[in-house]
Structure formats: C-alpha cells, structure tokens
Amino acid sequence: MAARRKKKQPIIIVSALLGIVAGIAAAKGPWRVWFQQTQELKKAETQLSSLQKYEESRKADNNLDNPIRREEEARKRGFVPPGEQPIK
C-alpha cells in the first residue's frame, strides 16, 4: 500500500500544478479587462474634473447682471458701442 501512495503523489502534485496554471491562465482575461476599465475610469475622472473647473470659470465669466461688468466683458471681446471708433 505504501508503494501505491508513492506512485500517486507525483500525479497529485502534477495535477495540482496544472490546475493552478490553468486557473491563472483563465483569470488572465478578466484581470486585463479590470485593468483597462480602471485606466478608463481614471481618464474619465480627470476629464470630468477639468470640465467642472471649466464650468465654474464660465459661470464666473457669465456674471453679467451688472451693466458695468457687461460692458467691460463686451469691450474685452472687441465690441464697441455704435458710433465709437475702436483704438487699435
């Protein structure tokens, strides 16, 4: 009986190793997908952050309720009142 055990041990070890290798090979695809999605998420979060900053700056620029502020902004953009000659 001891001889049988010694013959089965290498088979069990090889089978276990093959199972581990097969498991790693099968898990490679999902890990790759997870990594790609993580990278895409980081890019999307960075883009969202920059767009939020841009939106905040645009809201600050669009504070044109004050007529003086409105005129200043129009002059910055090159607009002039009728009859006025722009200085170049």
Concise account of the structure shown:
The chain is mostly helical.
Keywords:
mainly alpha; rod-shaped; 2 helices; 88 residues
Explain the overall architecture.
The protein has 2 helices and no strands. The chain has 88 residues and is mainly α. The radius of gyration is 35 Å and the shape is rod-shaped.
Structure summary, number of beta strands: 0
Distance between the termini: 105 Å
Number of helices: 2
Mean pLDDT: 82
- Low-confidence runs of at least 5 consecutive residues: none
Judged by helices, strands and strand pairing, the structural class is mainly alpha
| Rg, alpha carbons | 35 Å
The helicity comes to over 70%
Strand content: under 5%
Global shape: rod-shaped
Query: The biggest beta sheet, please?
Result: none
Secondary structure topology:
Layout: H1 2-61, H2 67-76
